[in-house]
Amino acid sequence: MKKKITKLLSRPLLHIVIVLISLVWLLPSVGLLITSFRVRNDVMSSGWWTVFQHPFEFTQYSLKNYTHVITANGMGQAFLNSLLITIPSTIIPIMIASFAAYAFARMEFPGRQVLFVIVVGLLVVPLQMTLIPILRVYNRLGLAGTFIGIWLAHTGYGLPFAVYLLRNFFGALPKDIFESAFLDGASHFTAFFRLALPLSVPALASLAIFQFLWVWNDLLVALIYLGGTERVAPLTVRLSSLINSLGQNWHLLTAAAFISMVLPLIIFFSLQRYFVRGILAGSIKG
Amino acid sequence: MRKRILVSVIMLTLVLTLITSCAPAPKEEVAKAGAVTVLGVWGGSELDNFREAVYPFTEETGIGMAFEGTRDLAAVLTTRVEAGNPPDLAILPNPGQMYELAKDGNLVDISKFMDMDELKGNYAQVWIDLASYEGKPYGIFYKVANKSLVWYNPTAFSDAGYEIPTTWDELIALSDKIVADGNTPWAIGFESGAASGWPATDWIEDIMLRTAGPDVYDKWVNHEISWIDPAVKTAWETFGQIVGKEDYQYGGTAGTLSTNFGDAPASLFTDPPEAYLHRQASFITGFFPEGVEAGTDYDFFPFPPIDPAYGTPVLGGADLIVMLNDTSEARELMKYLASPKPQEIWAGLGGFLTPNKGVSIDVYPDELTKKMADMVVKAEVFRFDASDLMPAAVGAGSFWTGTLDYVAGEDLDTTLEDIESSAVEAYE
C-alpha cells in the first residue's frame, strides 16, 4: 500500500521536475525567439521579458528583422553553399566510419586494438591545432578555397568520433546473429550490408544529426579553408557579416539564428523516429 | 527504403551542385582580370558601402574584389599568413597588428609602387608615420573614428536651458547643475563583452591629451613614463571627477559598468531624457535608436579643453589597409583606394570619415559629419587611440580591466601599480 502511494506521488513530482528543467533549458532560446520579433529600439531599451506585460499587443512584434536577413544580398547563395558543404560532409565520414567501425568490431586482424586506440586518441586533438599545417598542405595541392577541401577537412574532424561511436554500437550487437550468418556462408561484406547497417539505423541517424549540426553550425573551419568570399561562403559566414565591425545591428543576429536553425530542426524531426524505434526490434526472429 | 533515401540525397546534392554552378555570379565576380582578395572586419552597411566605393574600379580595370569578412580578423589572418595563404589585402582595425606583420616581413612596402609625393599630399605626416614601420610605409588609413566628441540632445538641452560647455570647468559646472535640477548628466556604458573597458580607456586618453599634452602622451604610449607617473595619475583623477560620482551617471557606477556601450546613448533620447551627455566616438551614431534626427535630436560638441596650454586635441582611431601579396592587380587596387575617389563615394554614403586631405569636405552627407571630418583634418594635435598602440597585454588587457576596477571603486594607486606591473613585462 505504502509503495503504491509513493509511486502515485513520485510520478507527478517527477513530471514537475522534468518540466521545470526543460523550462530553464528553453529559457535562453525563448528569449532569443521573442527578441527576434521585436523592433530594434525596443531591443535596445528593454528586456525581452517586458513583452509579457501585455503579450497580446501585436504592434510590438514585427517581422522586420526576418525580412532584413532574408532579403540581404547573397543569402540564397549562402544557403546553397551551406547545403553543398554539409551534405557531403555528413555522408562521407559516416560511410567511411561505418566500414572502419565494422572492421574494428567484427574482423580479426593484427594491430586492431592499437589502431583503434590511435583513432580514439585523435578525439582529444583540438582541431585548432591542425588549421595551419592542413592549410599548408591544401595550398600545395590547390585545395584551399574549394568544396572538396572542406569536405575532406570535415570528414577528418568527424571521423574519430564517428568510428568510436559506431564501433561500440556494432560491438554491442549480439554475436549470435553474425555467427549464424557466417554459418550460412555470408561474407563480411554481406554481414556488413545486410546485418550491421540495418541494425544500426538509430546509431547512424544520431551520428548523422551530430555531424550535420556540427558542420552546419561551423564558422571557423569554413572561414579558414574556404574563405569568406560570397561565391563559397556558407550561411554562418554570411550571417556573421551582417553586423558592422563594432557590432552595430546585432539585433539582426537573433532572426538570423532562427533562420539558420530551420533546416537542422527539419532534419532532426524527420530522423527522430529512428531514435525511438527499438534498437534490435525483431532482429532475431526465426 | 534506405536505398531510396540515399539515392535521393545524392540526387539532391547533384542537383544543387548544378544549380549553384549555373547561378548568376554576384556583382563582385564580374572581373575579367582576376579578383583581388581582401580580408577585413567590415560587415553590414560598411561592407555594402565599401563595395560601392570599389565598383567603379572594377568597371574601369576589370579587376574584381573578393571580400572576405570576419570579425575575428587577428586569428584568421595569422592562420592564413602562417599557412602561406594570405589574402592580397587586409584591413586591420588598428596599427598594432600591422607592426607585427611588418616585423615578420609579411607586408609589402607600398612606396615601391605608390606615388609617395601624391600620398604625402593627401595624407598628413602623422598618418603616414603611423602606417610606417622602421621608416617604410606599409599601409593607408581608412575610415577614421573621431573619438573626442560629447553627444547631447539639442532639444532637451534648450528645453532645460543648458549651455554648451567650452572648458572642463564649465563641463563639471554643467554636470552639477543638471544634478541640482534633479536629473542625471551622463549616460555612460563600459560593457563590451570580452573587450569591456575600452570606452573608459578612450576617456582617459582624451583627458591625458588635455592635461599632459601630446609629448607626454607619446611617452606614455611607448612606456617611457610609468603608469604611476603623476601625469598619468592626474588624468585618471580627472576621469574620477565624473565616474567617481554616483549621481553623475545614469544608473550610478553599477549602471556604467553593466551597460553596453552601444545601448548607453539611448538614454539621451527618452522623454524626459534619462541623461544629457554622452562621450563617445563618431561611430556611435550607428547605435542610436531608429528615427532620431541629426541636428534636432542629437548633436555633439568637442570634448572641452582642460589645460589651456594644450588646447583641444583630437583623439581618434582608424582602420588601415595593408598589402600582403605583391601582385599587379593588388597594386592597382591599393593605388585606387589611396586616391580620393573611392573615399568620396563612401563619405557620400555616410558613416565614413577620412583623413585624406584630397577629399572635399562637401561630399559628406550632413552638417554633423562635416563638422566631425573637419575636426580630424584640421586638428592641430591628432593622436591615435593609445590602447590600440600599446602591446595587447596592456592596451587590450590590463588597461581595460584597470579602468573597470577603478570605476568600481578600487584605490587608484593599486590600479595603476597593477597596470604598471603588466606593462613592465609587456614592453620588454
From TrEMBL, chain A:
Membrane topology classification: Multi-pass membrane protein
Alphabetical list of PROSITE patterns matching this protein: ABC_TM1 (PS50928)
Record keyword Transcription regulation present: no
Regions that span the bilayer: 12-34, 83-105, 114-135, 141-166, 195-216, 250-271
First and last residue of the signal peptide: none
Subcellular location: Cell membrane
InterPro entries tied to this protein: MetI-like (IPR000515), MetI-like_sf (IPR035906)
UniProt entry keywords in alphabetical sequence: Cell membrane, Membrane, Transmembrane, Transmembrane helix, Transport
GO cellular component, one term: plasma membrane
Protein name: ABC transmembrane type-1 domain-containing protein
Species per Swiss-Prot/TrEMBL record: marine sediment metagenome
Taxonomic classification: unclassified sequences, metagenomes, ecological metagenomes
